[in-house]
Amino acid sequence: LRPKRTLRLVLWTGEEQGGIGAEQYYQLHKENISNFDIVMESDEGTFKPSGLAFTGNAKARDIVREIMALLLPINITEVYDAADGTDINFWMRDGVPGESTLQIKFLPYTVACQGEILQALAA
Question: Which domains does the chain have, with CATH numbers?
Answer without folding.
Answer: 15-122 (3.40.630.10)
